[in-house]
Amino acid sequence: MTTFATPATAFAPAFPALPGGVRLAVVGLGYVGLPLAVEFGKIMDVVGFDINGARVKELSTGTDYTLEVSDEELACATRLAFTEDPADIASCNVFIVTTPTPIDAAKQPDLSPVLSATETIAKVLLPGDVVIYESTVYPGATEEQCVPVLEDLSGLLVNVDFYVGYSPERINPGDKEHRLPSIVKVTSGSTPEAADFVDGLYGSIITAGTHRASSIRVAEAAKVIENTQRDVNIALINELAILFNRLDIDTEEVLEAAGSKWNFLGFRPGLVGGHCIGVDPYYLTHKAQAVGYHPEIILAGRRLNDQMGSYVASQLVKRMTKENIPVRGARVLVLGLTFKENTPDLRNSHVVDILTELREYDIRADVHDPWARPEEASRHYGVNLVQSPEPGAYDAVILAVAHREFLEMGAETIRGFGNPDGHVLYDLKYVLAKSESDLRL
Question: Which of 86, 167, 311, 330 is deepest in the core (most CB within 10 A)?
């Protein structure tokens, strides 16, 4: 690990546990942790810790493959060092956990990354230290799951020897407009003094300001419902799209008309993937069921959104049949594999559901994505990306992700991938004008 060339930060909020100032460790250097470490690393000493040695090596050379942080931004974080050695965070007194919180095969919360990070911190935890969690969890997880691990392994007591806080992440991968400093940060702490400290710490880098929640549980709940609300709203629009398709009504035209009213919410139908919207609701439903409540609307929305990949494939097959294009043995080009546009993030991509369903029809699908990393696509999904799709070779083209490269191609170039004797162009993202595609969601 590179040693710091600058003195300890002068930033020291009014909190008696840290009389010598903040020595910060960010544990987990993914889409959430790295931007956070970079912002803090501009004003104070920060150790960025990750168990992935390749990731640490890459960041140490000044490059972020997730593209959330530019090389220039990394260079500006002059007080940030990276390490995979837990010993390098032993001198820190504030720890921020930003590890992922996925779901398992049974769609139950998988807290193992967070708990593993907690164990690492607990082994170096000292009296007066503060541990802050950003990972999305269900209400109560920080105090019910993480704090006992900290206490058991350190031999210390929460709110006596050490303190905890929770400040949910609000990173939107690929979004270059809404950046970490310009997004209001929810903060909380295990005591009023700890809450003051956490709020002041984040206030030093968040220009948009902070919102101090009354408790850690409130802050946890606020985070998990942000994405649950979006999930349910998108599920409604997806259901309407299915209905309007049967009624032979263009969904986009309906939404544009309804959107002329000032308070109509501008959601659009589509695949719901990624590490947040398609995952977070299961954390809330898990907790709801644990206290004896069966959440009807949330689970119904999840079921509907999870079925959209299969629906898209079936709609394509129906249209191909209608156009007298043989389905069995057909070749389909899928443009886009990442869970959203202009990001290499492949986590929980539901484009894969389309590919799975197409295979059931004995359709061969090629996938082209200029943002996705080929080795990750192969490792996670068994998808071998096509770097240069063959013009005129495909019986159908699915525009699945609205990467800017596809927008720049335009309808004529995209059409050029289709068989000149007949093909179907399915625009899932409303990238093209209605007249330029054959099928829209």
Answer: 167
